[in-house]
Amino acid sequence: MAAVQGGMSDADIETDIKTEPSTDGFGNNNANDGRVLSASPGSGSSTGSNKQTAAVTPEDQQTLLAVLQFLKKNKLIESVEILRREAGLPENSLDPKATESAGAGSGGAAGIVDLEGGDVSSLLSRVTGSSSAGAQAPTKAVAEDQPDVRVVLSAYSQQGDPTLYEVYYSDLKKFIETVLDCHRAELSQVFYPLFVHMYLELVYNNHESEAKAFFEKFSGDQECYYEEDLRVLSGLTKKEHMRGNETLLDFRTSKFVLRISRDSYQLLKRHLQERQNNQIWNIIQEHLYIDIFDGMPRSKSQIDAMSGSLAGEAKREANKTKVYYGLLKEPEIELPLDDEDEEAENEEGKPKKKKPKKDSMGSKSKKQDPNAPSQNRIPLPELKDSDKLDKIMYMKEATKRIRLGSDNLPSVCFYTFLNAYQGLTAVDFTDDSSLIAGGFADSTVRVWSVTPKKLRKVKSAADLNLIDKESDDVLERIMDEKTASESKIMYGHSGPVYGISFSPDRNYLLSSSEDGTVRLWSLLTFTCLVAYKGHNYPVWDTQFSPYGYYFVSGGHDRVARLWATDHYQPLRIFSGHLADITCTRFHPNSNYVATGSSDRTIRVWDVLSGNCVRIFTGHKGPIHSLAFSPNGKFLASGATDGRVLLWDIGHGLMMGELKGHTDTIYSLRFSRDGEILASGSMDNTVRLWDVMKAFDDLETDDFTAATGHIHLQDNSQELLLGTYTTKSTPVIHLHFTRRNLLLAAGVSQL
Amino acid sequence: MAEERRQKHCSVVLPTESMKAMAESVGVGQLQEDSCVALSEEVSYRIKEIAQDALKFMHHGKRRKLTTSDIDNALKLKNVEPLYGFQSQEFIPFRFASGGGRELHFYEEKEVDLSDIINTPLPRVPLDVSLKAHWLSIEGMQPAIPENPPPATKEQQKVESTEPLKVVKPGQEEEGTIQGKGQGTTTPDGKGKEKGLIRLKPRSTHELSVEQQLYYKEITEACVGSCEAKRAEALQSIATDPGLYQMLPRFSTFISEGVSTFPTSCLLNHFFTSQKSPEHICVQSADLRLSSKVRVNVVQNNLALLIYLMRMVKALMDNPTLYLEKYLHELIPAVVTCIVSKQLCLRPDVDNHWALRDFAARLMAQSCKTFSTTTNNIQSRITKTFTKSWLDDKTQWTTRYGCIAGLAELGPDVIKTLIIPRLAIEGARIKAVMEGPVISNIDKIGAEHVQSLLLKHCASVIAKLRSPPDNVEQYRTEYGYLGPMLCSHVMKARTQAALQAQQVNRTTLTITQPRPTLSVSQSGLSGSSGPRTPSIIKVPSSLTLMSPRPGTPSQPSPPATKYIVMATSAGAASTQQVITLSSSQSASPVTSTVPSATSTLQPLVKLEPGSGPGLTASRPLQKYIVVSLPSSASSSLETKSSVLPTSISSSSLDGGMKLERSESPGASTQSPH
């Protein structure tokens, strides 16, 4: 039973499908098939694993075992012990004989091994197989399942008459064109993955001319948002090309997920069985994951709204995890009682010094948000005195904040970088809008002060010894007046700087670069403190946690990493994206991280567990900007397709679509009170959107909430509050000051 | 749609010939066809892969242009050593050469003299990156400041003027109507209160903000005022400022009324009182102040004022952001008035109103060139107007002069078809005034000016039309009274052209390389061959020898350079021809001729593979392209230089000049066409 889902416990329907006909084909290949998700040779284990309810998913188990095996092979006995203990695996789990016997289907072994028997053996055979073949051990992330390319491709070695492929495909096409309208849209989803896999099979089996003909004939039928992938595919005409092609591996390793209603699916199944169309049936079973739901088939527009990603839609299960999207309780900090009081104090001269000492009577005690994570869900750094001062400043500013709305639009101040020769690649503002940092293509990082306060370095060690450490203004005295200037340049990277982020306390700056490093810079000494090495490929984005200390980075190696500034190794590795991670954002409560990727999906990760808790699909191009709403409930994302999508994090739903931009959106930002979303784009415009209206307008009933099938209104024009065109200057960063003035930055392309 | 996309996706593969050529360049002689196919597919695939990766870097670099560094970074991703130091000043660094039945593209790599590099002064240090802040929007309104784009682009202005009833959606409208604080009327739109309402575009309000009124006042005062420096500044502002679109109607009215009122009545007050539209009081007050200023030195300034106004017209036309089409009905009559008016100043015998007529005529020609379309037919209408009044016997000399100037500025074709046939008649008329009884001094001056004007414009055209031996008698019979003078002018023009050509020759002579034979034959005699001597070249019109390398005429470069040998003409089309020609490879390897439709003479230049020593068969060869163009083209050198692209080091050879480069030894193996 080749198609039995070995370790998959997530879909009952799945097994239902998989145990259907399909007897030909894959048996031999699967013996050395490295994919965890593929079948195991032990037939006895299938039922067992399906019943598994252990906390650790079988996939994790398998991965662990593989890691253990690898470590053992490399004589890293100590690590083996530690890992084994931590994972709670029995000692004999690594004994090849035990697992082998389990794999043989004896079912004699006990405990976890019993449940995992088949998988373990397949896993072991994979590890040994790959090592004997001289292949490298998994080089990417530990947690990631990186299959051997050769093995992956061999799954395509299935032979069929190449000339019949076209017939099969057009037969299916004809069938789908003739079904009832309500099913047609749903079934049409099958076209694209089928097309790709059939094409790849043809290529793999060296039927070059057939493959070309097939491509020519049917590529035009595919949805236009797959165009980029089709372009990659069109270049791929030889078996040799398939080796090492990322796009291809993505198609192969990840199942393309389709959501189809039960009725439509039955139709398709019946048709394929009637026609004995095994070729297509095999592909559907092997490479597609069909998420079947009960209820009305979806309409074309509903499907289009959600599709477009590299690997189909997100499974419904993927977005079921509870997400604590609420905000953390603000620490108890004394607020000035009211404005008059503040004014009076200001006149006295030193209001700041007094406030922390005052009693906490004035601060309103916020009640705990039921959706918020517990305060210590992840350890956060303690507030320093300076942080408290800053919080007070923040609250003072907040009282002066302009309340924005559709009839009260923000002013926009645009910072143009002059003489940058188009070399500006990243910009960030500090939260209090006092500093601007720019990352440049010439590897430099520059910081400007936009307030009259100049940038100063700390004095040298010798000079520091001379100052009176007891004095009140010691913080002022350590600064070297001679170094005061409006901007500072920091050298260290050896490639374009693509991501840049200030720490919330304005003492540090992070930058990520093409050279594969993330650097931490001190804004007191204007020197590099740490170079975090881990990504071996360009790091596209990095961002500090809103509470400092942690930061996240993501890059070409398709994983996002969570770091702490005092660890030179990442704390978490978030892996699962199928292509470059293009942007990373922290949730306001610091418990979650959102990543956008070239695979056209957005994933939200739990910092605590490292699990992916949300997958959002719907963009039709690489995602280049993300923004959380200040209340933590919503996420906005912008992509090269020029659309902004709004997401409800709690329900895992798409909330809206904002159309208007004509080019890549590089920047998104909610106003401080979350009323307005600003988007900045390559098309030289800043646009303002009435997101409150978008959230209010959306009608959601229980059914749509449960299935995630929402009806989006096309009301972008009503939601668009303003369009401000620059003089051929793409907008690459936006920032709302604490008083809700919008700052924008860009470099002229003239 | 499916069709289009299929087109896009069909896999493009490098030709196998490229593989062969590349193999040859690294010393692999015989590459099998199979290997070539395999190689080209592989290489094409890899190139695509790298290009796709490079795109990623472009996106993250937040640029629209792919740069070489993106490619380098993409190569780095693949663990391939990037191409260090690859940079090119030009878009495509390849040169094309053909000969011996082969076509080749190659890099031009020049030997560089290190001492030259050392001795060149250091380039200026580029300016450091700096920040500049401006208000993109103030509470939802975009202020009209230079940092922001003009409120309405030329396209929008055009759309507005041509499609006044266009349905405007709120989102789009915002772009067009947010124009500054002064415009209270658009405020509600900007605030989104009328969202979703589809309504007709409101009639554009001609209300100027306070700042704009001030600006208008300053500009108009400066333009007609007495301070030349201020005027230059004001004109500069009109010519470059992007936000003038709203004031355009004012300016055009200012000009047209200024012109129409002055010459006829010569009363300044008249002009100023005529501007009494109620809505611009402020503007009017500006005018009044102006009038008081001008009135002091009344009539003398009449002519000067007209010149100033014409300069304003020119400045408006130079402004790239203005959509002038809407106001031509006011501007053109004003300009034409300045060309043909009977009297432009009080003392026509003393004042140089002729210069004004010349200037206005040039303006007219320019506007014909820019604005003439098939629908408005400006050029033909203007031509008709000029011709009609010129043909009228009663027309005064001043108007006559203006008509001729206006026609002459329209180009050599117009001169050839309209002016030259009438030279004899006009000559007779001039003769009558000059040699007849003196009627009035004014007439005599007028006739003199007309005469010199005719000579000036016609000489260059006739020099192109007629072949060299200039016989005075022949001229007299053909052109009558003006004949002898024309003859001398034509000869002067010819020698001038020759002088220019000689200078050019000096530069071309420095090219030292294996000389290919250049043979030129008339199309009628094509096939006549033999050892080429320079005298063979009998191109009646002047030839231009151009090197595609800008600014490096003296640099000897061993492998071929391409030359385009062409006869000049006045039309801008000729340059286009050359450019398309040089980029297309359709031309036959040996000779390429671009026949020109109007040309009667078609010189061919043939290029033989030079048999000079050291020239191997695989060596790329020089290619000559002769573009022959109507010999009627003007031979004036000024015209030529304006026709040829400035980046190309151009030089001209007169028809009589010898081509020094065709001195290759050995018999030429010419392939007759």
TrEMBL record, chain A:
<feature type="repeat" description="WD">
    <location>
        <begin position="417"/>
        <end position="458"/>
    </location>
</feature>
<feature type="repeat" description="WD">
    <location>
        <begin position="490"/>
        <end position="523"/>
    </location>
</feature>
<feature type="repeat" description="WD">
    <location>
        <begin position="616"/>
        <end position="649"/>
    </location>
</feature>
<dbReference type="InterPro" id="IPR001680">
    <property type="entry name" value="WD40_rpt"/>
</dbReference>
<dbReference type="Pfam" id="PF00400">
    <property type="entry name" value="WD40"/>
</dbReference>
<dbReference type="GO" id="GO:0016251">
    <property type="term" value="F:RNA polymerase II general transcription initiation factor activity"/>
</dbReference>
<feature type="compositionally biased region" description="Low complexity">
    <location>
        <begin position="38"/>
        <end position="49"/>
    </location>
</feature>
<dbReference type="Pfam" id="PF04494">
    <property type="entry name" value="TFIID_NTD2"/>
</dbReference>
<comment type="similarity">
    <text>Belongs to the WD repeat TAF5 family.</text>
</comment>
<feature type="region of interest" description="Disordered">
    <location>
        <begin position="1"/>
        <end position="57"/>
    </location>
</feature>
<feature type="repeat" description="WD">
    <location>
        <begin position="574"/>
        <end position="615"/>
    </location>
</feature>
<feature type="repeat" description="WD">
    <location>
        <begin position="658"/>
        <end position="691"/>
    </location>
</feature>
<keyword id="KW-0804">Transcription</keyword>
<feature type="region of interest" description="Disordered">
    <location>
        <begin position="335"/>
        <end position="383"/>
    </location>
</feature>
<feature type="compositionally biased region" description="Polar residues">
    <location>
        <begin position="22"/>
        <end position="32"/>
    </location>
</feature>
<keyword id="KW-0677">Repeat</keyword>
<dbReference type="InterPro" id="IPR015943">
    <property type="entry name" value="WD40/YVTN_repeat-like_dom_sf"/>
</dbReference>
<dbReference type="GO" id="GO:0006367">
    <property type="term" value="P:transcription initiation at RNA polymerase II promoter"/>
</dbReference>
<keyword id="KW-0805">Transcription regulation</keyword>
<keyword id="KW-0539">Nucleus</keyword>
<feature type="compositionally biased region" description="Basic and acidic residues">
    <location>
        <begin position="358"/>
        <end position="369"/>
    </location>
</feature>
<keyword id="KW-0853">WD repeat</keyword>
Automatic annotation (TrEMBL), chain B:
<dbReference type="InterPro" id="IPR009072">
    <property type="entry name" value="Histone-fold"/>
</dbReference>
<feature type="compositionally biased region" description="Low complexity">
    <location>
        <begin position="177"/>
        <end position="187"/>
    </location>
</feature>
<feature type="compositionally biased region" description="Pro residues">
    <location>
        <begin position="550"/>
        <end position="559"/>
    </location>
</feature>
<feature type="compositionally biased region" description="Low complexity">
    <location>
        <begin position="518"/>
        <end position="530"/>
    </location>
</feature>
<keyword id="KW-0804">Transcription</keyword>
<dbReference type="Pfam" id="PF02969">
    <property type="entry name" value="TAF"/>
</dbReference>
<feature type="region of interest" description="Disordered">
    <location>
        <begin position="513"/>
        <end position="561"/>
    </location>
</feature>
<dbReference type="Pfam" id="PF07571">
    <property type="entry name" value="TAF6_C"/>
</dbReference>
<feature type="region of interest" description="Disordered">
    <location>
        <begin position="143"/>
        <end position="195"/>
    </location>
</feature>
<dbReference type="GO" id="GO:0046695">
    <property type="term" value="C:SLIK (SAGA-like) complex"/>
</dbReference>
<feature type="compositionally biased region" description="Low complexity">
    <location>
        <begin position="632"/>
        <end position="652"/>
    </location>
</feature>
<feature type="region of interest" description="Disordered">
    <location>
        <begin position="632"/>
        <end position="673"/>
    </location>
</feature>
<dbReference type="InterPro" id="IPR004823">
    <property type="entry name" value="TAF_TATA-bd_Histone-like_dom"/>
</dbReference>
<dbReference type="GO" id="GO:0003713">
    <property type="term" value="F:transcription coactivator activity"/>
</dbReference>
<feature type="domain" description="TATA box binding protein associated factor (TAF) histone-like fold">
    <location>
        <begin position="12"/>
        <end position="78"/>
    </location>
</feature>
<dbReference type="GO" id="GO:0051123">
    <property type="term" value="P:RNA polymerase II preinitiation complex assembly"/>
</dbReference>
<dbReference type="GO" id="GO:0046982">
    <property type="term" value="F:protein heterodimerization activity"/>
</dbReference>
<dbReference type="InterPro" id="IPR011442">
    <property type="entry name" value="TAF6_C"/>
</dbReference>
<keyword id="KW-0805">Transcription regulation</keyword>
<keyword id="KW-0539">Nucleus</keyword>
<dbReference type="InterPro" id="IPR046344">
    <property type="entry name" value="TAF6_C_sf"/>
</dbReference>
<dbReference type="GO" id="GO:0016251">
    <property type="term" value="F:RNA polymerase II general transcription initiation factor activity"/>
</dbReference>
